[in-house]
Amino acid sequence: MLPGHHVSSWRYQGTKKEHLFNLKFLAAQAKLAEKGKFDMIFLADQLNINDPTSTGFEQTLNIMYEPFTLLGALAAVTEKIGLVGTASSTHNEPYNVARKFASLDQLSEGRSGWNVVTSGQLLESKNFSDEQPLAHRERYERAEEFVEVVTKLWDSWEEDAIVYDQSSGKAIDSSKVHSIHHKGEWFSVRGPLTVPASKQHRPIIIQAGSSESGKELAAKTAEVVFTAAQTIENAREFYRDLKGRLVKYGRQRDDLKIMPGVFIIIGRTEEEAKHKKQQLLDLVPEEAGLARLSEHLEFDLKGYPLDGPLPKLPSIEKVSGTQSRVELLKKVAEENNFTIRQLYQHIAGARGQRELVGTPEQIADDLQLWFKTEAADGFNILPSHFPDGFQDIVDLLIPELQRRGLFRREYEGDTLREHLGLKTPPNHFIRLSE
Amino acid sequence: MLPGHHVSSWRYQGTKKEHLFNLKFLAAQAKLAEKGKFDMIFLADQLNINDPTSTGFEQTLNIMYEPFTLLGALAAVTEKIGLVGTASSTHNEPYNVARKFASLDQLSEGRSGWNVVTSGQLLESKNFSDEQPLAHRERYERAEEFVEVVTKLWDSWEEDAIVYDQSSGKAIDSSKVHSIHHKGEWFSVRGPLTVPASKQHRPIIIQAGSSESGKELAAKTAEVVFTAAQTIENAREFYRDLKGRLVKYGRQRDDLKIMPGVFIIIGRTEEEAKHKKQQLLDLVPEEAGLARLSEHLEFDLKGYPLDGPLPKLPSIEKVSGTQSRVELLKKVAEENNFTIRQLYQHIAGARGQRELVGTPEQIADDLQLWFKTEAADGFNILPSHFPDGFQDIVDLLIPELQRRGLFRREYEGDTLREHLGLKTPPNHFIRLSE
């Protein structure tokens, strides 16, 4: 998140060292997001930083908040906005993950969401006593069972299980609290959870995998999907594909919302926006650019000429992490005939997401087209830098979308589930007993 | 924590269903603790609730916050008070635990602490794919290495590692960020952590084990120890014993603070205090009392006559959980010739901790004696019920301690380490490179 999505955002005017881990500053950003009537604040996560001896380490602000301590804090300073954290299904236990989100859901009165990731990075596995990451397929098998266990745990308390009858001394209706007795390939978990159901019944499940197994997992379990489509054709194809997979899991089209990522730089004129982008690019240290590109490709580019082409990369099946990201980057380089420098500049901000640089009207035109033609149900907005880049989005882009009737002027509900217009999935245990 | 430490606190006047998971209410309690100039707020934790079909399940408010979401929220609404959470060294990975506390430490500007527990309950292990808890000895071996890994990760960022030189483009001084390359019996962890060092350098480490392995672990690693001594003689013996063990780990007497637990009920007169206690006892449903006692003894007492003696219990080596607690309870029952009912009433509030029921002066006399005669460096205060029981402590007991010059009137420092008067332990990596 901070100081921004652009790799050189920390050098940009207005960003400050004092903002790092500063709760007052973070609270102000969260309140700004709420003023903008966003559905949710989303914290990405990764369970490692780069090797301190690697290229670009010194030029990159390579730190990462732990999502839950921050989301808990933001719950205390906001009223309506959803609070979404990332948690790995590979380097965690489902009981711990279920509890964290359920507890955040209680404290925020129904505003939490879980972005499920499978953590394929080598340096992540090395922080968890594994010499190698699990293979892609195993990660997804584990993730599927992990999500199943977590949702069962969330369902282990029916909504009216707490009786709290002070005079009779009955605190809980035990018929509405369920041991889950899960026994599977990866986990055996007895339950119940230690935390009762919240106002939105259960946290929202979010995913971003675009590989074949990622899409199947999403179709089966996700309520929101983040994706990184570059063109409207690709986005529509992904939309059609993923929505089409829902029916075989007994789900309806509206049970899953698709939100492509957009990295945004706004100017009051097109020139101003382009100038900001150029300023940010000019601030990218070569080492930092090369480091980020190497990380995204999972291939160390150190020593290759910056103004030459990409070298031949290992075949895609060898990629342990985000296969779809690597594939997309190779395609972009090929189609545009990019040098290494051009390619790292291309992802310096957007990290492989689509980039929109322009006036509020231009950006709104683009988002409107995607939204109206089944390329997107909404967007995962990535501000280039905080606070100013985000302030521009709230002050300039959101009002333009509101004027067009494309975006809410006020929150209509209280929970994240209501903001997203999602139904509560049926409870595992109520279904069983019917 | 809520609605109080007494098993029937939820039925007591002034406690309310609406307080559960209510962030405004919780924030008010935290602010009250800060008004009382407490060192820290401590959240206990356990990774299970009882079986919904077990005795007393319906009569016990058997729920548990996840500590980090709540501590994050409390960081946002307090300024000075320490924020201490419990995390298990058995059902977690050290990288995740190190990160959570480091992140809370950043967001709270140096106010976090970790209460290390080893989770010996059978129902806990069943939530984590284990049929049986690890044996006592293995839990402590794992805990020792776990703490070592966590502290190395906390040390992986030296304090001035973030340079943030916007003009030169140097964000980080890589010579001050260390991969830890830990390889041990239980864990292999590469590091560095994703979160830099905070204002107090590293979170405070707290423990409560009173078994032989517990005391050794504490002497080696803990900065605060919670204990459950019933008599001043036992407390002094524990104090002498534990402080005496420090030297072999190269530590000094003041590097570890000993804080016995005290469960407190205050009245403006002694009669009022006793009356409150009796009211609370009268509200204990038999099933709930029996359930808590069974849980503490790790032995199901269902079916035994409430007004008869304790049956013969399995020998202490068979206890997988908190051996010292079981031992203490058996001793109390024996010495007082308690029936099952008397024993569950005895622990209904104090949970095996010492109980103080009286006027502020009486309670202050007792605490003063312990504090002045090497039985305690401080106390872990357990209020019987929230909000009123805690309000009494802040409004009546704290001022009495302040009048006697035994307790601060204002915070003198900003960090938990400063409140406790603890030095920063030497950094693993700076030592290595000297």
Strands, helices and their partners?
Two copies of one chain form a homodimer.
Chain A: H1 23-35, E1 40-43, H2 67-77, E2 82-88, H3 94-107, E3 112-117, H4 122-125, H5 136-154, E4 162-165, E5 170-172, E6 182-183, E7 188-189, E8 204-207, H6 212-221, E9 224-227, H7 232-245, E10 257-266, H8 270-282, H9 286-297, H10 323-336, H11 340-350, E11 354-358, H12 360-372, E12 380-383, H13 388-403, H14 416-420, H15 428-433
Parallel strand pairs in A: 1-2, 2-3, 3-8, 8-9, 9-10, 10-11, 10-12
Antiparallel strand pairs in A: 4-5, 6-7
Description:
Chains A, B: FMN binds at residues 45, 86, 136, 140, 210-211. Chains A, B: Keywords: Flavoprotein, FMN, Monooxygenase, Oxidoreductase. Two copies of one chain form a homodimer. By secondary structure, chain A is of the alpha/beta class. Chain A has a single domain (9-265, 357-433), classed as TIM Barrel. Chain A has helices at residues 23-35, 67-77, 94-107, 122-125, 136-154, 212-221, 232-245, 270-282, 286-297, 323-336, 340-350, 360-372, 388-403, 416-420, 428-433, and strands spanning 40-43, 82-88, 112-117, 162-165, 170-172, 182-183, 188-189, 204-207, 224-227, 257-266, 354-358, 380-383. In chain A, the strands form three sheets. In chain A, strands 1, 2, 3, 8, 9, 10, 11 and 12 form an eight-stranded parallel sheet that branches. A two-stranded antiparallel sheet of chain A has the order 4-5. In chain A, a hairpin with a 4-residue loop joins β4 (162-165) and β5. In chain A, α3 (94-107) crosses α5 (136-154) and α12 (360-372) crosses α13 (388-403). The longest helix of chain A has 19 residues, at 136-154. Chain A is globular. The interface between A and B is large, with 85 and 85 residues.
